[in-house]
Amino acid sequence: MSFRPSATNLSSLRSSSKSWIARQARDPYVKKRLSDPASYRSRSAFKLLEINDQWDSFLTKPDVKAVVDLGAAPGGWSQVPYDPLNIDDLEPSSALTGRGTIVAVDLLKMQPIHGVHAIQADFLAAETERRIHNLLSVKGNLECKADIILSDIAANASGNDVHDIESSLEICEAVFCFARQYLRSAERIGRRRGGVLLMKHFEHPLLQKFRVEKLLPNFHDVRYIKPDSSRSASREGYFLCQGWKALEE
Ligand SMILES: C[S@@+](CC[C@H](N)C(=O)[O-])C[C@H]1O[C@@H](n2cnc3c(N)ncnc32)[C@H](O)[C@@H]1O
């Protein structure tokens, strides 16, 4: 049986599907992903690589021992810190010395990545935090903290601007609350830019207000980043926040 689409099938595609296919065919990062020996699972991996390259290789610092990747499926971002952390087959409560932990969370099931602990769950659900906590709770990380928290979570676009902005704000607020509890402080790490939060958001004045009120006072350095690899038509951007001050501890 052939799975090649017939001419009839192609001609019956909606014009939005046709333009998506045409855009994928033109996209240099789609081509790069297909030819890259790292076999990244997503085009998004190039956004993280680009941000990391431009901002002092924060992922590869030798003191990075634990990373939490929120909205991780299909797994491109989780693949990026895998090598520098030199992860082996870590079980919760096994020795951490010289190794690290990556915890990946997504609503969707993720194909396994060696050394990455995947949780299929809604990050916004109360019990998910306990599951992340248990995985961070390994020997050598008695504080149960993460050195880096990444969030590429994107709720499905509804087409309703107000609703989509509210979702983005809700996610950013939840990620920030999580960071407040789980991010290791710059002081504890012994580096002014230690304790990093990278989060996706949708551009809107309410998100800028969130940046000013929540992020700026709590980190030594906060940047708005629109990576070249992020499609210009998309309203997504990233806040890269380095140097968690842990003011409430
Ligand atoms: C842009 S994709 C992430 C791509 C990923 N960084 C990669 O490189 O493979 C956004 C992800 O956020 C997930 N997501 C959306 N809402 C979520 C939630 N409440 N909890 C967990 N994951 C969520 C989606 O299922 C989707 O897989």
Task: Outline the secondary-structure elements.
Blueprint: H1 7-11, H2 15-26, H3 28-35, H4 45-54, E1 66-70, H5 76-79, H6 82-85, E2 101-106, E3 116-120, H7 126-136, E4 148-151, H8 161-182, H9 186-189, E5 196-202, H10 205-215, E6 219-225, E7 236-244
Parallel strand pairs: 1-2, 1-4, 2-3, 4-5
Antiparallel strand pairs: 5-7, 6-7
Helix pairs in contact: 8-10
The structure holds S-adenosylmethionine.
Q: Which percent bin holds the helix content?
A: 25-40%
Low-confidence sequence ranges: 1-8, 87-98
Number of strands: 7
Class computed from helices, strands and strand pairing? alpha/beta
Shape: globular
Can you give the mean pLDDT? Answer: 85
Strand order within the widest sheet? Answer: 3-2-1-4-5-7-6
User: Radius of gyration, Cα only, in angstroms?
Assistant: 19 Å
Encode the helix/strand succession as letters. Answer: HHHHEHHEEHEHHEHEE
Q: DSSP strand (E) fraction?
A: 15-25%
CATH class group:
Alpha Beta
CATH level 3 topology: Rossmann fold
Number of DSSP helices? 10
Bound molecules: S-adenosylmethionine
**Count of distinct structural domains:** 1
